[in-house]
Amino acid sequence: MKLLHWCTLVPQGPSGLAAIRFVKLVRIKCIRVFPKGAKPFKQCPDIFGETEPDSFLLDVFFNAQLVQLSSESKEKQRATNALVPTTIAYAGGQVDFTVDLGTEYATRLMIVKGQFDALSLAIYGEVVSESIIPPLSGGEIASSVPKSIPSVEARTLSASIDPANSTDPTFLARNLLSLLEDTPPLSLVSKLMFCLKPDSDDWDEPDFPYLFVDFDRDIFQSSLKTEEDDETMNSGEDQINFDIEATLDAMSKPVSDTVAEGTLTKFAQVVADNIDSKPNQALHIAKLFKLAASQRPSLALALCQAIEFHTVFDARSLDEDILLHLLDASANADIARYLHTDYFLDMLAEFQSPSIGVAQTKTAKQAAERLVTRLQAWEVFEDALSNTQTNFAAAIAFLRDIGAGEQSLGIWLASMTKHIDLITKLAENPIVPNSSGMYPKLFVRNGVSGSMSVGGAISHDEFIAFVRAFIGVASVLAVWAWSDSLGNDVCRERTLGVLRLWQSTDGYREIVNYLLLLRQFTLRLKWITSNDTPRKSGIFGEQILSDLLDEPDAALNDDLVQTILSLKQPLSHISENDRLSMRKIALVVEDGLPAAIEELTLTNTHPLSHRRLRTLRVSIALVERELAEDPRKGDWNVLQAIWDEQSTALAPRLTELLGETARDLNGYFRITSPFPAQHQAKTQPQISTAASLPQVLTQLFQLAEDLLVLLLHLTTVPDASLSPNFPPLSFSLSAYTLRSLVLSVADIFACTDIADTMYTQGTPTCISAQSTRQACLEFVRRASNTGPGGVIVEPEGGKSGGEIVMSELLKHGVARSGRDPAYHLLQMFALIDYVLPELNSGTGAGTDLVHEHWVLQVLPNVSNETQEFFRQLDVESKVYLLRRLVRLDSQNLVGAAEWLFTEEMKLFERCTKTLLSSIETSNDQRDTNIQTVVLLYQIGLHVRLLEHMLQTGSDMLAWCLEILRTVQEASSSLTTSMVDLSIARVASSHLDAVVKTLLIHFDDGDNGFKSTLIVLFLRAVRLGEKSDSLWSKVVTLLKTLPLESIDLAVLRLDVGHALAAIASDSLSPEISSVILSLMTWLTAQAAEKKLSTLCGIKADTLVTLYDTLAASLPENQLSALDRLRTTLIVDGDETFVPANMNIPDTLQLSLQELRDILSPTSLKPITPTTPTRTSVPDVLGLVISPPAALLRSPAATGLTKTYLNNEFRDLRQAAVTRQNTSRLPSMHVDVGITGQLT
């Protein structure tokens, strides 16, 4: 990117237009505006910016031209007059505005329109002719050196704006507050903005904000009692005329830090004394506790110590207002400890029970429930500040509850910054350096309730960082509210800039967006964005508002909806399209459930746009809110809305939406995208640009997760024990619908892993993909279960959910997906592994029934699909799946793993027979033929499977040996395969390992199998395999075999090769004795004298072997060795040994080889050719084979005849000789199994 143009524009004429024309086609990347007096270039100090006024709106138009990408195109591009508009909001200072016309468009003309006097700007970009890189030739591509892409590392926030990693989280807020004149303390500001809410008249007071409560004037109104009380008159004591309402009015002002502790204690005692004489003041006392909770800690503590709670409150005196006041007051640590007693908790339980006899509102009961939870959570939260092994999820939920109300937030913030014990506990935790740039994202949406919970495991350091960030964000929000109330644009602009930066940072974003939903902040965003003149604070406000609406939970906020609906142009950051999109969402929320149902049932165009995705997510959130707010009637209300608005069923429609979402995600991650490119016709939907693709993917993953969560809520079998009186309604799924859901979930699951790999960890796309992946796993788990927690599948008595899920996953794993087949297969295998129940997943009758159901009803019904899927897996995955099935069917009720292994052995046998047949047919044992190489690789896969199963120390060794002993088909197939491999002379280190294990552990094979193992062992020794420990086993086994079961010619040859291989080795006395025993056995076979004649070893090599044995044998065996020297001889003839066929460990095929294998062999018809005559006489030429006509001739008296004169012609005139015995040549061609002509 370089400087294209610098100028100062001055509008011409009444229209206020100015234009820049470029001499070449350019692609503009950035427009930089310089304020008046600024020096744009260091090399040119005499150039100054002249922009006036300080703020204005600009309409910018670019004459867009389509760039000719291909120089080979014969059609010349037409010049277009299309003007691409955009708006620039200049609010002062030096500002960069990014321009993105894409790579396919460029411009020669830029037009500017606006209310400005002068505009100094620099335009940066590139000239199109210089940016087009010609394609590389084949030679250039081959000689080019690949360049490594530098890794992108996350940048951490500066320490000055990172309260999560600061010992004083309020440091940034106090610095922002110092931008104001006559800066009040931060504690006073947060108290006024969140809790006390000063009257409008107080803002006009000259001493504001230092308007403190005067206890003597406002509360302690002392006067002598009237003369009617003589005793009091005589005593001379003062009597305080206490007025609770006046006291509450006075306590709505802050308490000064200069007030003596004795005054606070006296005030608490006065309140307690007057409560005794004036009953039924529960509402006033609850409000007093709330007002005191945000004041000095000693005031709330004094009230708690002075007031006896049971004298004020009981279950019948409680109401909604009292409970809400106490809920806010309990955000104070001291008041929470005071209320957290068995008496008060029992009172709240009695209040919620129907036995009290008083009809309570739903909101009152919810307030009582929240109060109980908050009192209990305070204890957990305090413990979490110092305990590294506590319940951090409950502590995070407590903070979320605190942030739901302004009063609670302000009171809790005062406790965390004023209570010495809490400050000390938090300060004792050291600062952990954050070098990764990752911040703890602990607010995670939790299902249908729309609440927030903790995602994943939380460390103590992450929790402490989150608490500090929460304090820092709340403090900065208080400063923003204060500066906005005062109208100080400098402090407000700086504070909003910090909030905007936090909103783009994971961890901070969740806290900021959640706290911004408080009513006063949504109203302040509304006020900031209603200014016609561009301001930086207004731009920040629009950016914050736009990002805030990305979350469906935020869009459900009524105050935020009204703020969105109030937006009107001109706006500085939000374009008209974005405003309409936001307005659409706000209108859906305002119309409620009927509008949500209508949006969910609309027909969509694909790919789904970002706007449509957000609308769908908000519609789902509205349905979820209806279900959560009224567990008893929410389902019915949703059904009623569907029946009123549409005639479709909810669960099938949500299934269709999930399928559409899956197809969109597949389109973005397939090898060839089905979506049209941007330069295609405008009538077609356009694919997202590279800049917006991550946002679209994020919304797609989140939409998929929302749909899955809602479907689970609607279709999960309820647990009647949790709500026996009013169990929630549950929808059933047809088998067809469940199949569609499983296929969609499978595709989404595969896409989540791709996104997790493609995008940087911690980015929104990656995080949403990871969250959606867990939702997919949870869905298939529940869909596979029966009973509570599972999914209802119709018709009753048909296929179970587990059978449907397994069948679809198995079939989908081997089906075409548009992705890498091997990758797709492994993703389906991960889902299947999660679906299969673990043997140790639980105990009890319920778990045993689940396992029995899977073993007896699910696995047998998907056996064919399982076999096809199993054959496509890699060796390690096959072993893992067999292990899972063996553990699941631990009692061997159906033997699914046994059947799969047996079928694998049968396939192994077919492969070896095919290999042997191809060798016999072609009479060629070379392993260079491509078909043979592929076949050998397939055989190698079976051998490696056996190697893994028979590995020493493996938990599958005993099971596999037992199958070979008890299952005749498996043993027979393995025997045949090993014999075929021996005949074909196949060699592999994996095969050697299998042979070793079988020789050691398997003694139950027939004699042919044992002899084959001996031969394979000897060949392994010839190839250099050191197996000294097995020589004794092999020789002993050989001596036990009858000679009829041994191929003696093969044995002589392989023994000779093996002895030649070890002739020069250093042998131990034990091995030497075994070798001597073998050689003695060979010479002792009187029935087969040929065994005493070795093949495959030379005479000098045998002499070397004798010398090696003599050097290691004990003296008592040397005489036997000497006898062998005379009895054991060597066959002097050269023995032809076919070359070994090596099993490849990897298989690499060129595209042409792959095409040849997959394409059918083209067969050309064979036409007969006319034989050519030769002048060379044939030895057999005198032998005549007469035609059949001659043999049938009446003139023929024998096999031969000598013709005289015209007898030949006369013979040809006979009727029988005129028969046409000729026929067309046969066009039939026989084709064998291997594709060869036969």
From TrEMBL:
Superkingdom as given in the UniProt entry: Eukaryota
Gene Ontology MF term list: RNA binding
Gene Ontology CC annotation, any one: RNA N6-methyladenosine methyltransferase complex
Protein name from the UniProt record: Virilizer N-terminal domain-containing protein
